[in-house]
Amino acid sequence: MTFQTGHVGLNVSDLDRSRDFYLKIFGFEVFGESADPDRRYAFLGSDGNLLLTLWQQSEGRFATGVPGLHHLSFQVPDIEAVRRAETVIRELGATLHHDGVVPHGEGASSGGVFFEDPDGIRLEIFAPSGADERPAPTASAPTCGFF
């Protein structure tokens, strides 16, 4: 058997706010959506591929202190795409960790931006190279592991 990640489903507290956030930062398109007040959801993706499903069935903020999702990471082709995403993240006023683009670790060329969605879900947009202009935030651990 072989496996490939399909889509990721996230619980959100406000579907409209989260949908708009992901559309603006990632440029996703809406594949399907429900306005039923008891079953609100949106299916998002690009190039015909479903990547993310949002389910309005939560309250409060994402809890990092309990077992579950650590962070969700998206790869882009180059560091310029990461920088474009960073600009949108800053424009939206989202929580941005490490103050911008950083490498995955000391001496690594791969890296990106680490930030949070409106519910506090930790996200990463990275490129395989070009992020080595700044030092890693922590020399003793992977950047994506502790933010």
Quaternary organisation: single chain
Total E-strand runs: 8
Determine the strand fraction and express it as a percent band.
Answer: 25-35%
Structural class, by secondary structure, is alpha/beta
Strand order of the main beta sheet, please? 1-4-3-2
Count of helical stretches: 2
Specify the biggest β-sheet: 4 strands, mixed
Along the chain, the helix and strand elements come as EHEEEEHEEE
Radius of gyration from CA coordinates: 16 Å
| CATH overall fold name of the largest domain | 2,3-Dihydroxybiphenyl 1,2-Dioxygenase, domain 1
CATH homologous superfamily of the largest domain?
Answer: 2,3-Dihydroxybiphenyl 1,2-Dioxygenase, domain 1
The pLDDT mean sits at 96
Question: Mind telling me which CATH architecture of the largest domain this is?
Answer: Roll
CATH class descriptor of the largest domain: Alpha Beta
Low confidence ranges: none
Overall, the morphology is globular
Query: Any idea how many domains?
Result: 2
Pfam family, one: Glyoxalase
Organism: Streptosporangium minutum
GO molecular function, one term: lactoylglutathione lyase activity
Region (Disordered): 128-147
